[in-house]
Write a structure and sequence with these properties.
This protein has ten helices and eleven strands.
Length: 380
């Protein structure tokens, strides 16, 4: 066992904890990525799949933590532990999913049921107002960083620190240029634009409304509002981390022993807030309580589409069985759907319609960001 195992073990424990929570955050009509009627959420097979999943995630997390504790080097321990946790978690999910899918097929859970697609036109004509004020902190941090950089630039040495190790000690340098000195400001601008844009697009994206829930539209509105605010806070936190990194590069902070804490703390706090809110609201607002819900009050989910009757909450109606568009319950691929972003089936937030070229292009662009950053900063 090595003494610096925390960088390997902490992420593993966090991922394991979030994985255990995930099934409880999804709507009743989606169990391990499988579309089911709401009343089947309590089926013995579903309960058994949940037990299988919990036991499997627990075992995988223990094995991954042991890898993090006993593999020789810190880098190898972290990579090995995360690989075991991620691959193992997906494998456990697929086992649980196969149990539910087999029971659904054998039991013909959708046979004789009226299948509909539910929509609420008000989500388009009167969407939830976007919380632009919550984007101001990210903008303010970015502008403030640029101002500090402009004041500091004439006094910078000819060589700037471009990389620090985990202890906050400089390991590489780059020549002083406008691009190298203000590269982190460019990163802040990119983070702000990217997160604000994605938040705005997803907030006005496709809503997965439940045909068996008359309050589905209201849940969706509250979910979108909560998640948008959390994501904008995350953007400000990431920009604040870049601000501290810029101060270290510009030699404003002096001793860098506390540098790793400053770099990680804002994002860590914002991530905790995001997780807490996600657990509170559930995917699509599935865990929210709506006023008057017990008495059946509240606005309906909207008009049904696909069966021509326009009643999404009538007895016997269920969501259309659309499993064929979800590969392994995780990847959405539907040429007939113009939406680029759709709500996840297993997890919180949105995923991409991989059948849309713009969705595939976005994935490529996001993957290129880690490659582009070193080039922008001009590390030598």
């Amino acid at each position: 066992m090595h003494t610096s195992a925390l960088p390997a073990v902490v992420p593993v424990l966090l991922i394991g904890f979030l994985s255990l929570l995930t099934p409880a955050l999804t709507p009743r009509t989606v169990q391990f990525g499988v579309r089911v009627p709401a009343e089947r959420a309590g089926d013995p097979v579903v309960a058994a799949a949940r037990r299988t999943y919990r036991g499997g995630i627990g075992a995988v997390t223990v094995v991954a933590a042991l890898v993090g504790l006993f593999v020789g080097s810190v880098g190898a321990a972290t990579a090995g532990a995360l690989l075991v946790e991620l691959v193992g978690s997906v494998a456990v999910y697929l086992v649980a999913r196969s149990q539910v899918a087999a029971a659904k097929q054998d039991g013909r859970w959708f046979e004789g049921r009226t299948q509909i697609t539910v929509a609420d036109t008000a989500l388009r004509t009167r969407p939830e107002p976007f919380p632009w004020l919550w984007a101001l902190p990210a903008v303010a941090v970015t502008v403030g960083t640029a101002v500090v950089g402009a004041i500091r630039y004439p006094h910078l040495p000819d060589r700037l620190v471009s990389h620090y190790d985990a202890g906050g000690h400089p390991t590489s340098y780059t020549a002083k240029t406008f691009v190298s000195a203000f590269g982190l400001v460019g990163v802040q601008m990119g983070i702000t634009v990217l997160i604000v844009t994605l938040t705005w697009v997803t907030a006005r994206g496709k809503a997965a409304l439940d045909a068996q829930d008359p309050h589905a539209a209201e849940r969706h509105r509250r979910f979108v509002a909560a998640m948008a605010r959390c994501l904008l806070v995350l953007a400000a936190a990431a920009d604040l981390s870049m601000f501290f990194a810029a101060l270290a590069m510009w030699n404003v902070t002096g001793s860098t022993g506390f540098f790793p804490v400053l770099l990680i703390a804002p994002i860590a706090v914002a991530t905790v807030v995001l997780v807490v809110v996600a657990v509170r609201v559930g995917q699509g607002g599935s865990r929210l309580r709506i006023a008057g819900e017990a008495a059946g009050a509240g606005a309906g989910a909207g008009a049904g589409a696909g069966d021509g009757r326009g009643d999404g909450s009538r007895a016997g109606a269920v969501n259309r069985d659309d499993d064929r568009y979800w590969k392994l319950g995780l990847l959405y691929y539907n040429h007939e759907d113009p939406a680029v972003f759709v709500p996840k089936r297993f997890g919180i937030g949105w995923t991409i319609n991989f059948a849309r070229p713009s969705g595939a292009g976005l994935i490529v662009g996001l993957l290129l960001i880690p490659i582009a950053l070193p080039l922008i900063l001009g590390s030598h």
